[in-house]
Amino acid sequence: MFPTARTLRIVVERIDPIWVNGVIYENQHEFIELPWDTRNVDIRFTNRGEERSFSFSLSPGRNYQTTLLLPLDAGADATLSEPDAYTYSLSFPGALAGLNQRIHIILPEPPYNVFAFLSGRAWLPTDAKVYGILPMILGSLFVCLGALLNGVPIAILCALFMSEFMPQKVASIFRGSVELLAGIPSVVYGFFGLMVIVPFIKDVFGIPSGSSLLAAVLVLSVMILPTIIVVSEKCLKAVPRSRREASLAVGASKMQTAFFVVLPHAKSGVFAAIILGFSRAVGETMAVILVAGNSPQMITGLLQSVRTLTATIALEMGYAAERHAGMLFSVGAVLLIMVFILNSVVLVLRRRGGEEDE
Fold this sequence. Notes:
alpha+beta; MetI-like fold; 2 domains; five-stranded antiparallel β-sheet; 11 helices; elongated
C-alpha cells in the first residue's frame, strides 16, 4: 500500500506569521509541506511579543520512512506531546490562558505491507497506526460458521417438512410466514437480540456482558433461516415425482424417501441455499453491531466479544481520514472478494446440478 503523503507536513495554531526554513507563511490555514527527505527544519515565530526560534533534525530512511530525532529543544516553556505514532505537537504559552500556540509536525506514514494488513492481530488506527484485520476476518468467519451450524439443520428439516409432509394449503401459509421473516429489517433482529439474548447469556453464564460471539451466532442463525428454507424447499419440490414413486414402490417409507432419495437428489440446490445463507450472514452489519460487543481481538471462546469486517466499516467510517479511511476501503475490498468467491461457488453448484439432472 502507498504512503499517506510524500511530504513532511507542519500545521500551526494561532501563529501568524511563521518562518520555516527561511520561507515566510502568513494566514496559514493549510499544511506547510516540505520534502519528505528533509534533514533539518528551522522555525521562527513571535510568541507573546518576543521572537522565538528553534530547529529540529530528521533522519530520512527508505520508502518515505522519516524519523524525528529527539530530544527536540524548543525552550523550557515548550511542551512536546505525541498524539499518535507519526505526529508530534509543540505547545507554547499564549498571551491568554487557554490560547496556547501550537506547532504540529506530521511525518509521512510509510507504505503499509499488505501481508501485515491481512495477517496482523492488532487494529489500532488512531494512535499506533497499526492495521491488522485477522481478528475481524476470523470473527466474520466464526460468526457465520456458527450460524450455519445452528441454522442449517433446522432450515433443511423445515424445508423437507413443507415439501414432503405438510398439506399444500397449510404449506402455502407456512411459506408466506417464512418469507415474511425475510422482510423484517436486520435492526429489529439486532434489537431483539440486545433485549432478550444478550441478557439471557449474561445471566446464564454469569459474565459481565452478554454481548459476545454466542449472541451474534444465535441472532444470525434466525436471520439466515428464511433464505435457506425458501430456496431449499423449491429445490426439493423440483425433484421428479418418479423418484419418490420408485422409492415407495420398493417398500421405503415416506420418511426414508424424503431423507435418502429426495434430499440427496436435490443436494446441489440445497448446498447452494446454504451458500446464499452464508453470504447473507457475511454481509450482515447492524444486528451484529448490537449484540457482538465489537472488540477487535483474537477469538478465544464463545463468550468473548468479537468484531466482524462489516461492523468495522460501519463503526469507524464516520471519523476515519487519510490512511485510516483507505484501510476501511481495503476491508470492504476483502469482504467483496469473500462474497465474490461464495457467489462463484453457487454458480458452479448450479451448473453441476443442471448437468446431473440432464
